[in-house]
Amino acid sequence: MEDLVVGLAKTVVEGALTKARSAIEEEKRLQKNVQHNLVFIAGEFEMMHSFLNVANEERVKNNVVRTWVRQVRDLAYDVEDCVASALPLDEVVTEIEQLKARVEDVSRRNSRYSLISDSGSKPVMQQQMAPGAAIGTIALDMIVEARDTSRKLQNVGDLTQLLTKEEGDLGVISVWGTGSAVGMTSIIRKAYQDPELCPKFGCRGWVKITHPFNPQEFFRSLVAQFYTNNCLQEGTSVNVDELKRIEVMAAAEGGLIEAFMENLSTMGDWDTIRTYLPDRKNSSWIIISTQQCEIASLCIGHSYQVMELKQYSSEHSVCVFFMEDWVKTFNLVERKSEMNQLGNYIAKARLYGLQVLSVWGIAGVGKSALVKNMYFERIYRNDQLFEKYGWVDVTHPFNLRDLSRNLLLDFRSEPVEATGIKDPTQECHKILKDSRCLVVIDGLQSVEEWDLIQPALLSRPSGSIIIVITTEASIATHCADNEGAVFNVKGLEDKAAFELFKSEVLRKNPSSPIMNSKDVELQELILKCGGLPKVIVAVAEFLAPKTVTWMDCASSLNLKFMQELESSPEFACLQELFGWMHCYFRTCPDFLKPCIRRRRLVRRWIAEGYSRDTDKISSEERGEQFFGRLLDLSIIMQKPYSFTTVFSDRRIVLCQVNSFVREYTISRQMEENLVFELGGSCTLTTQRTGRHLIILKSWDRDRIVFESIDFSRLRSLTVFGEWRSFFISDRMRLLRVLDLEDASGVKYEDLKKMIKLLSRLKYLSLRGCTEVFLLPNSLGDLRQLETLDVRHTSITTMPRTITKLKKLQYIRASTSKPTEQPIPHSSGAADATKKQPTQHTSVSWPSSVFYRCRQLEGVEVPTGIEKMTALLTLGVVNVDFARGKTILRELVKLTQLRKFGVSGISRNNIKDFCLAISGHAHLESLSVRLKKDNQDCLNAIPPDFVPPKNLQSFKLYGLADKLPEWINQLYNLKKLVLELTMLPENTISSLRDLKVSILRLSIKELPSGKLNFCVMLNGEQLRCFETVKVLDISCCSSLDVTFGSQALQNLELLKASCCSEPGSVKFSGLEKLSELKEVHIKCSHDGTLKKDVEGQLSRHQKKPVLKIE
């Protein structure tokens, strides 16, 4: 994970190195000393970049190294800003001299603290042997696990408390001493002599096992102990006849037994002992002591827990192993659907001969609990699919032999050493090949680990199945046999999160007043948990015992959420999660917000310098790769079905940051000195400084506070809510990004001031600023501008000076007007035009098809746009005006366009439009809106027209009832959006062979209100719409949809919205859609529709989820 941990610093250093080299090559008029200094700086940064390339996770855990990396990053920022500045050369000479001195000092600091050793692999201070190496890796891992369990089970204080549990079966407890037997005897003796426990057991005995082991002598000694203790308890003398009676009772049916076995050393001895003490299902107990952790765990069986009873030193503890009540421990709430899906994955693996499945998700989401539930359930119901079971946690640093040894412990009933097996890896391979095994490998952290495991353990073909659990999607995909064998465990939705919280409170305190509470602050607190069961349960356990004070406790926790969770002893069980968070935190973008569009995020990364061009890929492609990486880590999450895996770059329209991750990010802002935000009522302080400023909607807009901030290094400014003119300052000379999306109060005069003072802007977004009607001509002075987003504003015409912006790559512009086609509105639906609630909670964004109640109109652009050859995205351009044809002719020269949107296409300009896009090599996305009363103009295309061969997304608005014939020539099309006045049956049938994954149909009227996805030929149904995974239908008339048994067999999500009267919506054949997972319906209904759809889905094998509004 080294590229993730220091990724941000590496990116900035790359930028500084590139800028320095460019300045050396391009500035012929540089003074010799300045050029020499830049050469020196470039060389030093090259060495620093090499260091960051080998920096690993261990380094990042070192505070000294972390500080040095942060200093390198800040210095790189300053070098880049200096070299890229537009200042006259003589003004930067002094600054470069100062930067050189700082670079020298940072380099010396590295040598002073020995951060880079000769080998370049580890800091010198970390090359000493790690504590605990002497006691063995397995034992050390067991101690770590035991201490973690002790923090979780704080109510279990000693051995006595475990013995008071009514188990029903014969209970077994192992006491294990690490390193020596010191302390073991006293702990066991305390429980053995406990005055409350003694009367509970009719037979009590303590036997020290001798070597060699003699079973008969062992049993006689145990019976004698039983009798002696019985006499002492009753105050009677020894009687031979009574001794014989107790011997018979111990061997046959007798009462409760409490037997302590000291110094057990082999599993053979244990197996013999168990024959003398059979399970009578009467809550008797056997307690053994041993100095071998393998013996301790094997005596308990598959589902053990290990807990530390007493710690004498970092390497010496007394731990206890006991049976884990998996039914209670893994009683999953609101996870029935996931359990069914996981079962289906295993069934599918068996059916198709798959051997490796992967389960992935963010830390704390419940991956292991979900798999463990399935794993133990199969063991306890004696599932005939598998003969052997094995669960192994991957230890780090990774060691294949240790992993094999641990796995072998589950397969066999005795330690590896006792069996004489010399190569545990080879033995595991043999068992997996010869037997039907279910093996779980939990905690895999890299593809390199799997590349060592797979050839060593896996044999193909075999009847065994391996389930790999990891936190990264890329690792999961690498390990699984195919993409269909990868299962993503997601966080709980809001409703499910509250249900889990309530169930945990009820379990801990049935009379808790929290159960009936609808407190808003409590709801916000649960939302902050990010749907992570581990965090939700911890919060529930903290609040459940509280009665009178629970509201105050909840309020305090909500106010200092992350601080309390990290530092309070009550949340010690979350330390492992925070370890993961700390490791991955530095991969997060610096301005994480609750919900953001993918394109907005990528374009900002480019402008801020985090995503740059290389000799192999563009900055845009690199940004998409970064985005995919954050998806793989579950740091950024897609909204349900907001993308489909058929797109190689996984194009997501909307995404959101996990709420828990965001809270953690905010808590680290000051440490990283990168991001700071203004919210609520802020006090005057000198500590507000950083590269990125976020102004929240909740901030009281205090000008005194704002003007006290140091803006000298500010690179981005993001404003939520109301805009104020004093937000722009002449001290923001380095500002690259100005993001005012949906901000209110932005005026024309503000724009003129922005352009005058912020000459280095690369990203300007006024999206949703409806009070902006015009862009000033001075826009042409922003020569560094790369992204301009003025969608959903009142701008209708672009200034003529825009053609001066030769670096502009991305123009999104449009006005909006009410659509002629009404879309149903529910009182419970979110208003898409408003800002979403509190910035600390996860935001639920509705599907664009469900809330699209405004249609986009293009803007007029000036002639000369052909000069803007860097353009990758352009739209929406209105060509329904005098110069429209000229604009279309100029578009022919924009050969690098990837995305194009146009409105006003008519019979008058259709030929010029076709010429502009004909055979376009790079065009991937095309949006076309036809002029009113020109619905058939697309059929009048020139005979030499060639559709864009790489088109993946096609949106066509304003059709009548026919589709252009050339639509079937779009062989790479993945997404198709159609808006039609009417959709006849033959029109829908003409689309049956398209290989699209997303199909959206917006229809004003259906003939007879029927839509039939069932294509017949010679009396038989044809397989059709085979690749469609998402089907989205919106309609103004009545809607009666029928699905045939051969259509849409890969459909996963069905969405439908209708604004007709109740009772006019109907679905038939839903149970025939074999891959269906979710159905979303939005319409007026009287309950009959819901009942009918639920009935169809209940007959579906996969039990799809229904959401109806």
- What's the CATH topology label of the domain at 135-229 and 249-324? Rossmann fold
CATH class of the domain at 135-229 and 249-324: Alpha Beta
Low-confidence stretches: 1-10, 24-29, 116-134, 587-594, 640-650, 819-854
Number of helices: 38
DSSP E strands, number: 37
Termini Cα gap: 44 Å
Mean pLDDT: 77
Please give the radius of gyration in angstroms: 34 Å
Structural classification: alpha/beta
The fraction of residues assigned to DSSP E strands is 15-25%
Quick structural summary:
The protein is α/β, with parallel strands linked by helices and 1109 residues long. Helix content is 37%, strand content 17%. Residues 1-10, 24-29, 116-134, 587-594, 640-650 and 819-854 have low confidence and may be disordered.
For this entry, give a set of tags.
1109 residues, alpha/beta, Rossmann fold, 18-stranded mixed beta sheet, six-stranded mixed beta sheet, 38 helices, 37% helix, disordered N terminus, repeat, nucleotide-binding, Disease_R_plants, NB-ARC, LRR_dom_sf
